Model the fold of this input.
Amino acid sequence: MPDEAVPAEAVPHAEGVSNDEFRAALSRLAAGVVLVTAYDPDDGPNGADAGMTATSFMSLSLDPPLVVVSLRTGSRMDDLLDEQPMWAASMLSENQVRIAGRFSMKGRISDRLLFEDMDYRRGEVSGAPLIDGALTVLECRTEQRIVTGDHTLVVGRVLTASVPGGTGDAGPGPLTYFRGKYRQLGKS
Done:
């Protein structure tokens, strides 16, 4: 059997794939978009809200109800959730691209200004912002933190769950992230 040439892009690096290869490969995995929020009582005289867009968010357990979110280690949200165990997650709808974008941009303005013109209610258990128009909102308490690679996995026990629009199929679909862009389910 003659030797066949192996394409260079298929040959892994000695220690794994490059950052660019890894990003390209995983960009093909569609993910739901979630706004993770928390209230920081120690930020300023009246405290302050913080938020970040996450696409690495998933259910972990039904009994007990657990979710997990991946945060860049040392980020504002990672530092806050290391001190503040109560937080929330709002699963964004396809109509909320602007919200997702504003909380994910690099060099963004302060969280205080990002929340300024948004409609939300404060969670009764967590005190964190719950975004109006989200497909569902959860309030969580951190159960465990696992630092691995350049991220921290935060395991949260779901304390409240609400589906503001009801459980029917009417209404907007989920906001997804695929190939580096926000997308609507079923649309390219």
